[in-house]
Amino acid sequence: MTQGYCFVVNEHHDVPWSELRALARDATTRSYAPYSHVRVGAAALTTSGAFVVGSNIENASYGLTLCAECSLVSDLVRQGGGRLAALAVVAGDGEPIAPCGRCRQVLFEHAGASLLIDQGEEAATLTLGDLLPHAFGPDDLPTRSTP
Ligand code: THU
After folding, report:
1. What's the CA-to-centroid distance between 102 and ligand 1, angstroms?
2. Relative to the CA of 33, which ligand 1 atom is closest?
3. What are phi and psi of 27, to 5 degrees?
4. What's the domain count of the chain?
5. CATH code of the domain covering residue 12
6. d(CA 6, ligand 1 centre) in Å
7. What is the mean pLDDT of residues 44-53?
8. What would you measure as the largest C-alpha separation in the chain, in angstroms?
9. From ligand 1's centre to the CA of 68, what distance in Å?
10. pLDDT digits over 57-82, tens only?
11. Which of 21, 62, 87, 134 is the most buried (most CB within 10 A)?
12. Range of the domain at 97
């Protein structure tokens, strides 16, 4: 995990978006996508200022494919964990790609609704709460379990 920014990230203007986009684009070059040929790269900044990255990893059994965001969460946990504050996901053309539904849920566990998600230089940033409203998450488990 690369330490780069040692401040709390909770506003759009706190985020080094160009650097995140560059890391995500670089991650597309290490994607394994021999079936769809859709290379995806993801890069995120944690609330403690660390960068994590991921690339999609496909499989001959297509349904077992790992999305770039899942790979990024693996990177996060493997390197000590933390909370994701800002995320950029791009396809091989370098342009933003929307996190799929499963990835929205996976990201929610490690970020919550406040995660800032890049929409490119020209568009306003969205939050994970925008993409996954009324999410089910870890806080729901203690109150909803029955003996
Ligand atoms: N993909 C991701 O990596 N992330 C997403 O959020 C959307 C889809 C990948 C999975 C597969 O390798 C390729 O894009 C085409 O679906």
Report:
1. 10
2. 12
3. -65, -30
4. 1
5. 3.40.140.10
6. 31
7. 97
8. 51
9. 7
10. 999 999 999 999 999 999 999 999 99
11. 87
12. 2-144
**CA quadruple 123, 118, 105, 35: dihedral sign:** positive
CA separation for the pair 28, 92 (Å, rounded) = 6
Provide the 10 A C-beta neighbour count for residue 80: 11
Please give the Cα distance from 18 to 3 (Å, whole number): 16
Could you list the active site residues? 69
CA-to-CA distance for 81 and 25, rounded, in angstroms? 23
Per-residue model confidence (pLDDT) at position 19: 97
Nearest CA to 98 out of 57, 53, 50, 38 is that of 38
pLDDT digits (tens, 9 = 90+) for 137-147: 999 999 888 88
Q: Which residues have any ligand 1 atom within 6 Å of their CB?
A: 33, 36, 38, 40, 56, 58, 65, 67-69, 99-100, 103
If we measure between CA atoms, which residue out of 2, 6, 34, 23 comes closest to residue 94?
23
At residue 9, the pLDDT reads 60
